[in-house]
């Protein structure tokens, strides 16, 4: 039940619950609501994928109704995307099927599975929503209800107002062993070493303009697949980057700011700490994307040529002149951008866009 006086809002998750947390939340949602919805996207004229058909067939005994996109819009006045929308009864049996067919909410992703598992209020609005392609998950509940759920179910990691305090954010992230974390706009000068306790972390974003050094603890997160760093200046990429063997995407943007004091402007590129890419980059055998924006980098290391899975190479607004012969030999690259200018975009414009 909601708490009187506290607003009911969409409280988003940092990441979708998985494993036991997913199963316990399914039980909770089956108990709290009487309907859930799945979508067959019906891409083009292709037949419905076999797995989608199998899951829909299993759920058929619990079907209340199905509607086209146009019918859904006529009923609610809201916008819907293309597909057939199936509404099912919430029962322990239908909930069991949802638990058997998936391990987390991101599994409900077309065409592998029916799309976007949602649980509905009596008026048809979302109580729990999923937008799997956008990695968006959340519930229309109060902050207090979200906290209560987090206390009962380990693995639920909501985005809460209290997470404006970095220590509260890390407390909850560590307790729930999240695999996704965004550290942004905390006015930090250093990233706490406790980050090493997040061993399952797969995706980490840090947007802290006054952070100059990355802690050694960060390079202990050997499950990381995506790492994005935005800051005003970075002393460099530590050689321990080579420890992150699972890394698929590495993005670093200097000259970044989320609060711009009067007269602030980025350092000159030649004055930035980030001047080279270490040879250890060649140890990241899973790397698909390397994207570095605004730096003092003037050359690429020869070890880059070892990265046979690299497809997207972007080192822009730096000090590289021309295209190195090594890059020309990397025929497996699908996209290369080594432009040394910001393509006519003013730093004022970039700073404005960076404020969220």
Attribute tags:
7-stranded parallel beta sheet; 2 domains; 8 helices; disordered N terminus; disordered C terminus; 14 strands
Mean pLDDT: 91
Q: Which word captures the global form? A: globular
Helical segment count = 8
Category by helix and strand content: alpha/beta
CATH architecture of the largest domain: Alpha-Beta Horseshoe
C-alpha termini separation:
32 Å
Helix-strand topology string? EHEHEHEHEEEHHEEEEEEHEH
Q: Count every beta strand, where a strand is a DSSP E run of 2 or more residues.
A: 14
Major sheet characteristics: 7 strands, antiparallel
What do we call the CATH homologous superfamily of the largest domain? Ribonuclease Inhibitor
Low-confidence stretches: 1-5, 343-356
Under CATH at level 1, the class of the largest domain stands as Alpha Beta
Q: What's the CATH topology label of the largest domain? A: Leucine-rich repeat, LRR (right-handed beta-alpha superhelix)
Into how many domains do the coordinates divide?
2
Helix percentage range:
10-25%
How much is the radius of gyration in Å? Answer: 23 Å
User: Hey, roughly how much beta strand do the residues contain?
Assistant: 15-25%
Strand order of the largest sheet: 1-7-6-5-2-4-3
Organism: Paenibacillus xylanexedens
Pfam families: LRR_14 (PF23598)
InterPro entries: LRR_dom_sf, LRR_domain-containing, LRR_R13L4/SHOC2-like
Domain Disease resistance R13L4/SHOC-2-like LRR: 180-256
């Amino acid at each position: 039940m909601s708490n009187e006086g506290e607003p009911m809002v969409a409280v988003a998750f940092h990441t979708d619950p998985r494993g036991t947390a997913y199963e316990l939340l399914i039980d909770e949602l089956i108990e709290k609501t009487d309907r859930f919805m799945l979508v067959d996207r019906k891409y083009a004229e292709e037949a419905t994928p076999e797995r989608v058909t199998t899951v829909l067939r299993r759920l058929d005994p619990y079907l209340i109704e199905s509607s086209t996109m146009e019918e859904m819009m006529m009923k609610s006045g809201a916008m819907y995307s293309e597909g057939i929308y199936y509404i099912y009864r919430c029962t322990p049996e239908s909930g069991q099927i949802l638990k058997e067919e998936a391990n987390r909410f991101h599994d409900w992703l077309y065409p592998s599975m029916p799309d976007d598992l949602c649980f509905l209020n009596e008026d048809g609005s979302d109580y729990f929503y999923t937008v799997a392609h956008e990695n968006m998950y959340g519930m229309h509940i109060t902050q207090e209800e979200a906290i209560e759920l987090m206390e009962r179910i380990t693995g639920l990691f909501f985005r809460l107002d209290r997470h404006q305090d970095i220590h509260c954010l890390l407390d909850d992230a560590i307790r729930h062993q999240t695999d996704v974390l965004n550290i942004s706009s905390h006015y930090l000068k250093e990233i706490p070493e406790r980050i090493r306790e997040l061993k399952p972390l797969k995706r980490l974003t840090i947007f802290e303009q006054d952070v100059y050094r990355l802690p050694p603890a960060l390079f202990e997160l050997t499950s990381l697949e995506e790492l994005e760093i935005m800051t005003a200046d970075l002393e460099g990429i530590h050689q321990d980057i080579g420890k992150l063997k699972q890394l698929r995407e590495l993005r670093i943007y200097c000259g970044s700011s989320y609060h711009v004091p009067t007269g602030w402007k980025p350092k000159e590129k030649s004055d930035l700490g980030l001047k080279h890419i270490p040879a250890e980059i060649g140890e990241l055998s899973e790397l698909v994307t390397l994207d570095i924006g605004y730096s003092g980098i003037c050359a690429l290391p020869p070890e880059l040529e070892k990265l046979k899975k690299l497809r997207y190479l972007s080192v822009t607004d730096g000090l590289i002149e021309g295209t190195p012969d090594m890059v020309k030999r990397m025929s497996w690259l699908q996209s290369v951008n080594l432009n040394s200018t910001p393509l006519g975009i003013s730093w004022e414009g970039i700073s404005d866009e960076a404020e969220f």
